[in-house]
């Protein structure tokens, strides 16, 4: 079995997505801390691994891949015993890609807000909140009639969105009256045994709650 190293920190949603998937696939990942708060990601050694200085990156026995979405596609194609998380059927796979790209868009909204809060802004600007609410509306519509974002089984895009939304929910709460389908999906996801212990929900909620309280 090849040695797999994941670089990152647990408070990062994309890093947590990869860890959840690894747990679901029963893969052993060695974890190496690259702390973006201490600028570890800008050090020469890490830039050789990821010239784009983001976390996570995966080193699979010398083969390096970065971006959580690309890592998850790779891990399922290479190691999963079936294709349920990332279907081989072109149309089903395309639907998964569609939601993964949407997750990347929503994650950037989260990242922008977190950067603003760390830079000293005292309140999340209204236009940023509205941008997030617009995504919640779309997500809620997407889930109508579906248990998961691409149908009735969990795919890697559900895992990505779970990590993004667990963080975003702390900053721009997901209102259960307005977004009942998202809330029901969150509950379904958090009930999975491979998610419960590695979602990082407790840690991220604490970190972001403290960040808001400081304001
Ligand atoms: N699309 C990327 C986003 C990765 C990302 O932005 N990670 C943040 C931490 S949550 C990061 O590395 N920030 C440091 C930087 O931008 O230099 C993915 O899914 O892996």
UniProtKB/TrEMBL annotation:
For this protein, the record's Pfam families field holds: GST_C (PF00043), GST_N_3 (PF13417)
Which part of the chain is the GST N-terminal domain?
A: 2-83
Query: Do you know which SUPFAM superfamilies this protein is assigned to?
Result: GST C-terminal domain-like, Thioredoxin-like
**Which BP terms in the Gene Ontology apply to this protein?**
glutathione metabolic process
Q: Where is the GST C-terminal domain?
A: 89-211
Gene3D superfamilies tied to this protein = 1.20.1050.10, Glutaredoxin
Q: Where is the signal peptide?
A: none
Q: Which GO terms describe its molecular function?
A: glutathione transferase activity
Q: Subunit structure, per the record? A: Homodimer.
The UniProt entry, under PANTHER family, shows: GLUTATHIONE S TRANSFERASE D10, ISOFORM A-RELATED
What name does UniProt use for this protein? Uncharacterized protein
Give the species: Henosepilachna vigintioctopunctata
State the organism's lineage. Answer: Eukaryota, Metazoa, Ecdysozoa, Arthropoda, Hexapoda
């Amino acid at each position: 079995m090849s040695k797999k190293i994941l670089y990152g920190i647990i408070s990062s949603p994309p890093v947590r997505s990869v860890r959840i998937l690894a747990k679901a696939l029963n893969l052993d990942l060695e974890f190496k801390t690259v702390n973006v708060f201490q600028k570890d990601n800008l050090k020469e050694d890490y830039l050789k691994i990821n010239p784009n200085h983001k976390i996570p990156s995966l080193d699979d026995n010398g083969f390096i891949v970065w971006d959580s979405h690309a890592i998850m596609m790779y891990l399922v194609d290479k190691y999963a015993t079936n294709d349920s998380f990332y279907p081989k059927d072109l149309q089903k796979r395309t639907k998964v890609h569609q939601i993964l790209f949407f997750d990347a868009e929503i994650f950037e909204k989260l990242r922008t807000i977190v950067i603003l809060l760390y830079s000293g802004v005292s309140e999340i600007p209204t236009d940023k909140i509205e941008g997030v609410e617009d995504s919640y509306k779309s997500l809620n519509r997407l889930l109508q009639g579906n248990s998961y974002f691409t149908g009735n089984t969990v795919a890697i895009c559900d895992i990505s969105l779970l990590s993004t939304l667990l963080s975003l929910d702390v900053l721009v709460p997901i209102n259960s009256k307005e977004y009942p389908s998202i809330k029901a999906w969150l509950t379904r996801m958090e009930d999975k045994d491979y998610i419960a212990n590695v979602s990082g929900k407790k840690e991220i909620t604490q970190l972001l709650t403290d960040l808001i309280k400081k304001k």
